[in-house]
Amino acid sequence: MLKMKKISDTFDMKVFTDTGDYFGDIEEALLTQSKVYGWRVRATKNSFLTKVLGSAKGVVVPHQLVKAMGDIMIISKAAVPSYSGEEGEEGEAPAEAA
Questions:
Q1: Is the residue at 83 inside a domain?
Q2: Regarding beta strands 58-62 and 35-42, do their DSSP bridges make them parallel or antiparallel, or are they unpaired?
Q3: Do the Cβ atoms of 17 and 23 come closer than 8 Å?
Q4: Residue 23 is part of a domain; what is its CATH number?
Q5: Is residue 21 one of the residues assigned to a domain?
Q6: DSSP readout, 7-52?
Q7: Cα–Cα distance, 36 to 85 (Å, whole number)
Q8: How far is CA 80 from CA 4, 6, 42, 56, 61, in A?
């Protein structure tokens, strides 16, 4: 059974990758006429995004990369920018810097 969720219920929802990494919090839903295009995810203090992005505030995750939504959102690992462990070095990823 498909469960519907109000967009207003998703704000500040925790976002995790499908591998269990804490990714950030939902800041905004990006809409096209009648569909959700993507989600702006804010990099929070203890999130994986903070390590990867450094000074950027977050990323836009396309809705196609969302695997599940409930009390939390689970996204595909493909949305995570590649991280080499060195400051200032980023690989290409489908998520856009916000």
A1: no
A2: antiparallel
A3: yes
A4: 2.30.30.240
A5: yes
A6: GGGGTT-EEEETTS-EEEEEEEEEEETTEEEEEEEEPPTTSHHHHH
A7: 33
A8: 26, 25, 13, 14, 9
Residue 82 pLDDT: 64
20: left (phi over 0), alpha (psi -120 to 50) or beta: left
Mean pLDDT rounded to a whole number for the chain? 80
Residues of the domain holding 16: 7-77
Written as one letter, the residue type at 74 is: I
**From 7-21, 26-40, 74-88, the region with the lowest mean pLDDT:** 74-88
Greater pLDDT, 36 or 82: 36
Please report whether residue 36 resides in a domain: yes
d(CA 52, CA 83): 6
Is 22 domain-assigned?
yes
Amino acid found at 47: S
The structure's pTM equals 0.74
Q: Domain count of the chain?
A: 1
Whether 61 and 69 have beta carbons less than 8 Å apart is answered as no
